[in-house]
Amino acid sequence: MTTTQFAFVPATKEQTKIRAAFTGPPGAGKTYTALKIATHLGESIGVIDTENGSAAEYSSEFTFQHLVMRHYAPQDLMHAIAAANQAGLGTLIIDTWSKFWNGVGGVLEQVDQLSKGGNKFATGWKDLRPVEMAMIEAITSYPGHILVTMRSKVAYEVQTNSSGKAVPVKIGLKPEQREGVEYEFSLIGDLDRDHTMTITKARAHTLDSRIIPRPGEELAQELLAWVNEGVPSPTANSLRDQALAADVTVETLRGLLTEGRKRGLLGAPVIDPATEQPTTLGDLITRRGKEAASLAA
């Protein structure tokens, strides 16, 4: 290993895609807000619906493709994301991502099953953590915009209303997902029961700590302006298309593997046209490398 592998280069802002998460208690308007913002991003919209198909209630107001899921294994979510990519959906909403944490077949249930009543950290988490990280990588490397919703753990506190009477008020707390999940997104917006969003994290500094009543078009346009700044950058799909070229060489595929690793795209979910089954960009490039090497020999 040489120091040339760790060469520093001038920083350049590249164009990217929106990675936003909206949290809040029941009734805060997470699904509606995600659809409202997605509609103003100018892309075709897909919704992965874990809420008994409830997103369809908004189909008279918003146009989107709809996938209802009732089993919430992270492995299934990765397959659904691959299908969304194959369908060319420019914006994907996962509503709600919390189900893949604590729902039927989700991360917590699988950890319990793997540990079989034993030490969860020695068995269950050790086996499932790579799957969980692969799910996160599938989300963050999607070639289009990603909006996820997360439930907040609900609690009540006593507040004084406009009449001076003490009443219990429902408030949202910590999102129902693993600790530190906010690091995976460029924007986190917390919605309250009045549908007002408080932005608790934003890589676009002009949005940080903003309080936005009933967010929609304005927020969408600000997010688009921020992600479209900079120079174009490769996507998982552009690397996939190069790997699938009929005349691709082993040397080119090695370069694609390096590029995908550098950009964190090797875990991006894609459909392998040879098998018509979900796979990852890294595995697809590796398969094509073996084919090209065999032909060269």
Automatic annotation (TrEMBL):
Any Pfam family: AAA_24
Domain called AAA+ ATPase: residue spans: 16-217
Gene Ontology MF term list: ATP binding
Domain of life (superkingdom): Bacteria
Keyword Signal (UniProt): no
Keywords from the UniProt entry: ATP-binding, Nucleotide-binding
Protein's name according to its UniProt entry: ATP-binding protein
Species per Swiss-Prot/TrEMBL record: Nocardiopsis exhalans
